[in-house]
Each structure stands twice: as C-alpha cells, then as structure tokens.
Amino acid sequence: MGEIPMRSISVASDGSLLVAGNNKGKVFIWRICDDPSQDRFQPVSKFQAHNRYLTRCLLSPDVKLLATCSADKTIKIWSIASNYDVKLEKSLVGHQRWVWDCAFSADSAYLVTASSDHVARLWELSSGETVRQYNGHRKAAVCVALNDVNLA
Fold this sequence. Notes:
Blueprint: E1 6-11, E2 17-22, E3 26-32, E4 41-48, E5 54-59, E6 65-70, E7 74-80, E8 86-93, E9 99-104, E10 110-115, E11 120-124, E12 129-134
Antiparallel strand pairs: 1-2, 2-3, 3-4, 5-6, 6-7, 7-8, 9-10, 10-11, 11-12
C-alpha cells in the first residue's frame, strides 16, 4: 500500500472480510481469521477498481457484492467468489459528477448513490438501471443512508 492513503474501508456483515480502497482507485481485500494460530488479517486479493480517485467501497449485506464509487462518475459492482476471485459485474452510469457514497438495501438487490451532481439515485442491481432519481438538492449530495428491512 505504501504512501497512498486509504479512502474507504468496509467490513463484511458476517465478519469474514475487510475491504479497503485507496486514493488511486486500488482495492485490497483481507480475509478475517478467527484462528489464533494464524494472522488475523490475511490478504486475499487486490485489484484496480477505478483509474481515478476512489471515494467509497462497500460490501453488500449478503457479502456477495462489492460496490466502489469514484471521481470517474461511475459506480462499479463486483462479485466476490468463495475463493476470493473478484469479477466486474456492472458499471452503473448516469451521474454527471463524482459519486461520493452508496448504501445497499438489506436484501442486496438495490443500491442508493450520492453525487456532486446534486442527485441521489436508486439502482436496481439486477438490471443496472436507475429506478428512482432524487432531485432538488441545492448542493452536492455527499453521503447517503438507507433504512429498510429484509423480510426474507
């Protein structure tokens, strides 16, 4: 990781993974080990998620997806396999400026994003489409939260 600051971290809801993203768009994944005879954090993957400033990385509640947000105006959705292989599933495009933050729905099927373009968007992840756009902010939307319940 060197001298490049980490911009965002996310811990899996089941305590199995730690993900961190740096200012240069690189993402690092560690497995969190409970075995006291092993290192607590074991590096399992690293990859270039964006070519510009990464603003947020977030693991989904079901720990199957990783969302990354960036100054490149996109949100990327990555799948994480059980062997820690990471694959780009979708690039969500629609924001006109930096995307600062995101939040998954409780069932990991939707993502809400906030951007400097004064808009928050609700994305359906299966299609990669915006299903709702929240306009009217007078300044940049830089953080977002979603409070829903998984009824499954």
